[in-house]
Amino acid sequence: MAGKSYKIVVIGAGGVGKSCFTIQLISGTFVETYDPTLEDSYRKQMTIDGEEAILNIYDTAGQEDFSAVRDQYIRIGEGFVCMYSVTTDASFQEVRNLREKLLNITDDEHIPCVLVGNKCDLHEDREVATATGLGLATEFGWKFLEASAKNKTNVVEAFEEIVKSIRVYRAGTGGGAGQPGEAEKPEVKPKKRLCLLL
């Protein structure tokens, strides 16, 4: 039996490792150099909490200068992995702008999002403290993890968390993009949007 489908968009400033992160999930390999003209959408089947899930992942790498294309991905997305690099404060500051863009396009402050501080393996180059990332995620009501596409740290976990958030969101709103009126976990009450912070 095929699992339910989830549309996940990976967003973030240029150079934070969005494509490497996505490719690590899809193929289990770390790509040192990435050509942003390559594929921008991927499909991955996973079992999350005992349920099959088909992840349709849209990577916005190479789209930073093409806001119309990125905005189109945002319109179809059900959940977002918002990424910054812990080695670049400017990429962290861009997260606020991306959140505003999400709110403007989706008109939904409860849209499922996970904030990911990538490149946590580069300790000596760190510019953004873990507590700073966690604080911003808490402010936004988002889940948070630090990750390393290179070391496979929290790559799978980030996508598992966004799928779980989408499931709760669908149940709480009586449906979601692609699943009208379907509630996966009826015991979840509408409008309760508690976030697990890691």
UniProtKB/TrEMBL annotation:
GO cellular component terms, A-Z: plasma membrane
Against SUPFAM superfamilies, the record matches this protein to: P-loop containing nucleoside triphosphate hydrolases
What's the EC number here?
3.6.5.2
Q: Which domain of life is it from?
A: Eukaryota
Keyword match Lyase: no
Q: What keywords tag this UniProt record?
A: Cell membrane, GTP-binding, Hydrolase, Membrane, Nucleotide-binding
GO biological process: one example: signal transduction
The UniProt GO MF terms for this protein read: G protein activity; GTP binding
Q: What Gene3D superfamilies would the database entry show?
A: P-loop containing nucleotide triphosphate hydrolases
Cellular localisation: Cell membrane
* InterPro entries given in the database record: P-loop_NTPase, Small_GTP-bd, Small_GTPase, Small_GTPase_Ras-type
Alphabetized PROSITE patterns for the sequence:
RAB, RAS, RHO
NCBIfam families cross-referenced by the UniProt entry: small_GTP
Q: What is this protein called?
A: small monomeric GTPase
Tell me which species this is from.
Arcella intermedia
